[in-house]
């Protein structure tokens, strides 16, 4: 490795680690290997898929010029056009839609393909200036955020590096071996150095569960029952720190009376765990304060996910684990960065009085479902940036039907020819993080980072912010940001936030925003006027609160299995992909194999399914074909399909989200990706 040709950058993907990177720059303008920066938390380690990023930046199918559709919608037949022509057409179609049906008929649709603050939020600035429809960003973190905010009331928590001092680490509904490799590194270290014990709570033996001292393989969507029974044992056996509870929480008396009837036997019937497993976990948890719980997103992707996550978050507030190093809980670190967002969101423009459309319900929205349209007009024009809803959103059939509507204009700004891009009328080539500047926070650590371009744009690729500036010019949208370049945006945000400038951060490598111990452990008080809430004020957290229990409980809101749909499907991410990104690179495809359904051996015997055979999975929404893996690593009655594969990787060209429902998770929305009732049968 030639040090002179290493350039610093930051991984922009939607992954808690937000790794600082060192990128090999080759003489021909391409990149070579990508390495991890020597920064805290990352310690020079990155995942294999980003180490091989050259495969993605220089992918033969990379979108390199603007394209216009020349075949039927969705067929993927395109011809190159110029940038001016493409931008003029998008602006014309937006103007037309606004003139005919009002500005709200334009729906800018964007998500976290890049986590960089400038590029990720570019479309929101245009939306605000033009009065286009708003977007509820629910597809990932709404349910988890609602559950966490219900009790804790602030979006940060313990620094993961404290795990080095934990006695007990609980990974609850997360799979860091795949989704957060650095957390796994810290867990391994804690176990080796201090003999910390690892408990993993997951409906299947994930890569992380594989490594656990104890794996609690519960039924999906039953975490609330488990948490409540643990609380029962903590109260019963005197493991509650009364002094802590008195000082830092509210509602404990009601909680104690409420959980008195929620015994381990009661929870065993709901979770499928044994009473002994539940009691042993409760005692292990309650007999040390150095217990750190990682509350993952997986447990929140059920219709009762917010309730379940809140229930689990009650445990450290009972034992007082928050008071010690290596104790407490972690959900997301994202709220710890004090970023002044006015420039990012164009928030100095008045917020237009427009409806907000739920991005997870894109199928229902494009279908014209009156509830989903929130009282506004049909969507007539879209620009999609940094997300691939045709593959990642629930209700695939409805999404595809909607995107193919004759009366809908769709522009997609992409790096890769995704399923969503294939539906576009106009495709625009997007830069990768190596080709544009940005500013990065993280949801797994507290180091703020910046990056300048490492290579020139590939082909005619341009950044999200540039595209928005060009459209603003054509549409007459006015805001200072539209005239600024990417780097000026980064500089402006840093200055407004009172943070060091780009050069200073680059020279240091990062800017440390780690909250103090007292703040991270809420010793200065929790979010809601200082106290942790055992009885949430759900109404203040989201509008859809009527069905939620007043106190932590098992809320029977999940999609019910029945005689016709006896299996519960979960669809966790693949280690080798990042959502649907990397699912098109040769090495990730090779490592991931093929779309596979994990089914317990006992269920396979009953269904006469053999390993490697094709099975059809289905429900009222449709069916999907995948290869069977016979396993003991999942509870009978639960089946798992890992990875957001490209749709074309499935035998019938349509992927797993065909089976997933689009109804929102109460109280604040979210997609119930791990909460689907299905049937399974052998495919001849
Ligand atoms: N390699 C890789 N890394 C990623 C991603 C990726 O696609 N690939 N995606 C990134 C993104 S966007 C996110 S949001 C994070 C998500 O990362 P995580 O927080 O780890 O969440 P998930 O991966 O959705 O699910 C984690 C585990 O929850 C389990 N689970 C499912 N249902 C339940 C349940 O009802 N209860 C419990 N206790 N567990 C359940 C699943 O089986 C899975 O093993 O990872 C990020 N990192
Ligand atoms: N079945 C199932 N479905 C899921 C999940 C699951 O666990 N199971 N997980 C859900 C979760 S947690 C999430 S967060 C969503 C994520 O879903 P998405 O947000 O759609 O994430 P990706 O699939 O990674 O797609 C991001 C796209 O953005 C593009 N991109 C990257 N950077 C840029 C840029 O700078 N500019 C532009 N214009 N484009 C860019 C990439 O090429 C890529 O195609 O998926 C959800 N879907
Ligand atoms: S995907 Fe995650 S682990 Fe991999 S380089 Fe990016 S931030 Fe780091
Ligand atoms: Mo996510």
Automatic annotation (TrEMBL):
Keywords: Iron, Iron-sulfur, Metal-binding, Molybdenum, Oxidoreductase. SMART domains: Molybdop_Fe4S4. The keyword Manganese does not apply. Its cofactor is Mo-bis(molybdopterin guanine dinucleotide). CDD domains: MopB_3, MopB_CT_3. One of its GO terms (molecular function) is oxidoreductase activity. InterPro entries: Asp_de-COase-like_dom_sf (IPR009010), MoPterin_dinucl-bd_dom (IPR006657), Mopterin_OxRdtase (IPR006656), Mopterin_OxRdtase_4Fe-4S_dom (IPR006963), Mopterin_OxRdtase_prok_CS (IPR006655), Prok_Mopterin_Oxidored (IPR050612), YoaE_C (IPR037920). The keyword Iron applies. Coiled coil: none annotated. PROSITE patterns: 4FE4S_MOW_BIS_MGD, MOLYBDOPTERIN_PROK_2. Residues 4-61 form the 4Fe-4S Mo/W bis-MGD-type domain. Belongs to the prokaryotic molybdopterin-containing oxidoreductase family. This is Dehydrogenase. The lineage of its organism: Bacteria, Pseudomonadati, Pseudomonadota, Alphaproteobacteria, Rhodospirillales.
């Amino acid at each position: 490795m030639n040090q002179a040709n290493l350039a610093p950058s930051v991984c922009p993907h939607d992954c808690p680690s937000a790794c600082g990177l060192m990128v090999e720059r080759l003489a021909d303008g391409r990149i070579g290997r990508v390495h991890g920066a020597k920064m805290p938390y990352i310690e020079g380690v990155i995942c294999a898929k980003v180490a091989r990023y050259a495969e993605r930046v220089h992918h033969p199918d990379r979108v390199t010029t603007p394209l216009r559709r020349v075949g039927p919608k969705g067929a993927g037949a395109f011809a190159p056009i110029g940038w001016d022509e493409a931008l003029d057409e998008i602006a014309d179609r937006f103007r037309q839609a606004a003139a005919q049906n009002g500005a709200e008929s334009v729906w800018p649709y964007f998500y976290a393909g890049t986590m960089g603050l400038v590029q990720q939020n570019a479309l929101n600035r245009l939306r605000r200036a033009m009065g286009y429809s708003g977007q509820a960003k629910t597809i990932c973190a709404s349910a988890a955020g609602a559950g966490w905010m219900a009790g804790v009331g602030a979006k940060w928590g313990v620094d993961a590096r404290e795990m080095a001092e934990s006695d007990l680490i609980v990974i609850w509904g997360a799979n860091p071996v795949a989704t957060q490799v650095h957390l796994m590194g810290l867990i391994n270290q804690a176990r080796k150095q201090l003999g910390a014990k690892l408990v993993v709570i997951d409906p299947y033996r994930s890569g992380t569960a594989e490594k656990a001292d104890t794996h609690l393989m519960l039924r999906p969507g039953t975490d609330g029952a488990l948490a409540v029974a643990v609380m029962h044992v903590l109260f019963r056996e005197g493991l509650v720190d009364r002094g802590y509870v008195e000082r830092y929480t509210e509602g404990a008396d009601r909680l104690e009376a409420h959980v008195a009837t929620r015994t381990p036997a009661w929870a065993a019937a709901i979770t499928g765990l044994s009473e002994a497993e539940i009691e042993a976990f409760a005692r292990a948890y309650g007999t040390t304060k150095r217990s750190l719980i990682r509350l993952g997103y997986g447990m929140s992707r059920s219709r009762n996910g917010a309730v379940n996550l809140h229930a689990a978050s009650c445990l450290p507030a009972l034992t007082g684990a928050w008071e010690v190093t290596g104790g407490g809980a972690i959900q997301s670190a994202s709220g710890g960065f004090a970023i002044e967002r006015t420039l990012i969101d164009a928030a100095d423009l008045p917020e237009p009085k427009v409806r907000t459309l739920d991005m997870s319900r894109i199928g229902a929205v494009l279908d014209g479902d009156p509830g989903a349209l929130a009282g506004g007009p049909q969507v007539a024009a879209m620009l999609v940036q940094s997300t691939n809803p045709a593959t990642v959103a629930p209700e695939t059939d409805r999404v595809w039907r909607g995107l193919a509507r004759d009366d809908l204009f769709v522009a997609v700004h992409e790096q890769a020819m995704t399923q969503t891009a294939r539906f576009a009328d106009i495709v625009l080539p997007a830069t990768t993080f190596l080709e544009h500047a940005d500013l990065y926070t993280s949801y797994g650590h507290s180091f703020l980072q910046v990056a300048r371009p490492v290579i020139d744009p590939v082909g005619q690729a341009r950044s999200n912010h540039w595209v928005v500036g060009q459209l603003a010019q054509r549409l007459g949208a006015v805001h200072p940001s539209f005239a600024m370049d990417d780097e000026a945006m980064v500089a402006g945000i840093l200055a407004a936030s009172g943070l060091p400038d780009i050069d200073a951060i680059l020279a240091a490598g990062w800017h440390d925003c780690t909250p103090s111990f007292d703040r991270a452990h809420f010793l200065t008080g929790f979010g809601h006027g200082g106290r942790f809430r055992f009885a949430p004020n759900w109404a203040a957290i989201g509008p859809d609160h009527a069905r939620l229990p007043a106190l932590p409980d098992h809320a029977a809101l999940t999609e019910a299995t029945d005689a016709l749909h006896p299996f519960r499907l979960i669809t966790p991410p693949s280690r080798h992909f990042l959502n649907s990104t990397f699912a098109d690179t040769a090495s990730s495809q090779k490592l991931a194999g093929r779309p596979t359904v994990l089914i317990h051996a006992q269920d396979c015997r009953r269904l006469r399914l053999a390993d490697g055979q094709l099975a059809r999975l289905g429900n009222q929404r449709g069916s999907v074909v995948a290869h069977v893996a016979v396993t003991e690593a999942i509870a009978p009655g639960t089946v798992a399909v890992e990875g957001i594969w490209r749709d074309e990787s499935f035998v019938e060209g349509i992927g797993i989200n065909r089976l997933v429902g689009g109804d929102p998770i109460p109280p604040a929305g979210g997609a119930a990706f791990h909460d689907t009732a299905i049937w399974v049968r052998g495919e001849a």
